[in-house]
C-alpha cells in the first residue's frame, strides 16, 4: 500500500474542508500548518519509495512513476511553503479588515482544493481523469484569481476563465483523439486510457491521429502553461491574484501543464519519432522566451515582472524537452529550480505589496535597506532567475544551450542571445528594486504574520541554495529513471 | 425489439449531427441573447438524441446515462442559469459585434471546410456507424471558438464555450462510442461547475463595471 501517495492527495482536501468548517481562526491556521508539514514529508516519502522501488501505486487509479514523483517533489515542496506563506499573508489581510473571517476560510478551502487537484493530476494513471483534475485546478484557480473582487482582479479572472476553458477544451479533444486511436488496439475499455497501456501499444497507434492529437494537446495544455502566443492571461492573473496564489500559479500550475504535455509527448515519440513533437516544442519555446525577454524590460509592476519571467522559464524548459537527451534532464531540473526561485520571488513581492499597498516598481527602491529579508530574497531569487551561478538554473540553461548547439546551432545562437537579453533586463529591474534609498515608509506588518511569511521565504531560499550546489542523490536517481522514458540514456552530471 | 440496418443507422446519426451543426449557424446568426440560449438548449437536445441513437444502435448502455445527463444539465439547468443572468442584467440584444453576421456566417462556412480537411486522414480509422460525425464535431468546436471571439457580451461568450463543449461531447460519442462512464461523469461535473463560475463572474463584472460588455475590460495591458 502506497500510503504516502494517498496522504499527499487526501491531505489538502481534508485541510481545505476543515478550514471551511472551522469557526476559529487559530484552528484554521493549525490545520494549514499541519498540511504544510505533511505535504512536504509525504512528497519526500513518495520520492524515496519511487527512487528505491521504481513506482508507488494504488490500483487502479493512482500510480506514481519517476516522472510523477518528480512533480510530487515540486508540488509538495512549493505547496508546503506556499501554504505556510498563505497563512501569514491572508492573516495580515484579515487583520487589516480587507477580508472577513468567512472569506478567509473560503480562501483556504479553495487554495487547498487547488493544490489537491494539481497533485491528483500528476499521479493519476488515466489520461482522461488527468484532464478532469487539471480542469478542477483551472476552476478553483479561476475563483482564487478574482478573489479580491477589484475591477482588475475580475478582469484578470475573466480572461483566465475564458482562455483556459478554451485551452482545456482543445486538450480534451486531443485526449479524445488519443482514445480514438488507442481503442482500436486495446478495444472499448477504460484500459485504452491508461498511460502504461498507451506506452505499451504506442508503436501500433495510427500516426495521423496521434499527430493531430498532439497538436491539440500542445495548444490546449500550452495555454495553461502560459506558452506564447497563448500566454496573454498569464501576466494579468499573476499580477492580480492574491500573492500566495500568484506563487502557486507560477511555480506549480505551469509545471503541471508542462507535465501533461510531456506525458503525451512520450506517446507521440514512440509512434512517430521525436522530431515531430520536438520541433513544435522548440519553436513555441523560442517564441515564448523571445516575447518574455522583450517585455521584461518595459514592466512597471513588479508582480508582472516575475510573471513575464515565468513565461521565459517555461519557454526554456519546453526547448529542453523538445531537444531530448540531456535537454530533458536539464529541463526537469529547470522546473524544480524555477519553482523554488519564482515562489521565493513572489513571496517577497507579497511582503512588499503588503507594506506599500501598490505594485509600482519605480516607487519601491532600497528594499535591501528597508526590508532586508524581502529585498534580499528578491535579489537572490532574481539572480537565480536570471540564470547566474551558483544556482541550478545556471546549470540547466547551460545544458539546454549545449543541447541546442549539438542539434541545430541556429537555435542555440537565437536562444543564447535571448537569454542574454532576459538576463540583463531581469537583473536590471531587480537591482532597481533592491538597491538605492527607500522612497516611502509604508505600513508595518503584524509580527506574527510576518513570522509565517519569513519562514516560507527562508525555507525556499535554503532549498534553492542547497540544491544549487549539489544535486541530492535521490534526485539524481529519479532523473536517471525518467531518461529512458523519452528514449534516451543520460548520466546526472 | 426492432432492428435498424447499419446503413440506415449511420444515416440517422449523420442527420442528427448535421442538425447540431445547423443550430451552430443559427446561434452565429442570432443577435437576441435569450434566443441564443434557446438555440443552445435545442442543440443539446439534438446532442442527447444523437447519443441515445448511438447507444441504441450499438447496445452500449452507459451512453444512455450520458444522454440523460446532457438533457438535464445542458438542455435544462444551464439554460435556466443563463436566462436568469440575462434577466438580471437587463441586456437582451447584442448590438455591436466584433464581426458582423454575414461575415461571421462566411467564416463559419470556412471553418466547416477546414474541419473536414483536418479530419480527413483519420476518419477511415473510426467505426462505420459514427465516423463521419468526427468532422462535424471538430467543426462545432471551431464555430464555438469563433463565437467566443466574435461576440462581446459575456453571456454569448459563455454560449460559445458551451457550444464547444457540445462539439467535444459529439466528438467523444462519434469517435469512440463515448468515453468510459467515470470520465463522462467527471466531464459533466466540470462543465456544470464551469457554467456556475462563469455565471458568478458575469454577475461580479456587471456589479463592478455596470456592463457585461467584455470590451470594457481594458485595465490590464501588455
**Biggest interface found:** A-B, 51 and 47 residues
Strand content of chain A: under 5%
- Estimate nothing, just give the exact number of structural domains of chain B: 1
| Cα Rg of chain A | 21 Å
Fraction of residues in β-strands of chain B = under 5%
Oligomer: heterodimer
By secondary-structure content and strand pairing, the structural class of chain A works out as mainly alpha
Largest sheet of chain B: none
Summarize model confidence as the mean pLDDT of chain A. 91
| Main sheet summary of chain A | 2 strands, antiparallel
Distance between the termini of chain A: 34 Å
Residue stretches of chain A low in confidence (pLDDT < 50, at least 5 long) are: 489-493
First CA to last CA of chain B: what distance? 63 Å
Can you tell me the residue ranges of chain B where pLDDT is under 50 for at least 5 consecutive residues?
Answer: none
Mean pLDDT of chain B: 85
- Number of E strands of chain B: 0
| Helicity range of chain B | over 70%
Order of helices and strands of chain A: HHEEHHHHHHHHHHHHHHHHH
Shape of chain A: globular
Strand order of the largest sheet of chain A: 1-2
Which keywords apply here?
heterodimer, A: 493 residues, mainly alpha, two-stranded antiparallel sheet, 19 helices, globular, B: 222 residues, 75% helix
What would you say this structure looks like, in words?
The complex is a heterodimer of chains A (493) and B (222). In chain A, helix 10 packs antiparallel against helix 13 and helix 15 packs parallel to helix 18. The C terminus of chain A is likely disordered. Chain A has one domain. The longest helix of chain A is centred in the middle third of the chain and has 36 residues. Chain A has 19 helices and two strands. Helices cover 79% and strands 1% of the residues of chain A. Chain B has 222 residues and is mainly α. Chain B has seven helices and no strands. The chains are: A mainly alpha (493), B mainly alpha (222). Chains A and B meet through helix 5, helix 6, helix 8 and helix 9 of A and helix 5, helix 6 and helix 7 of B.
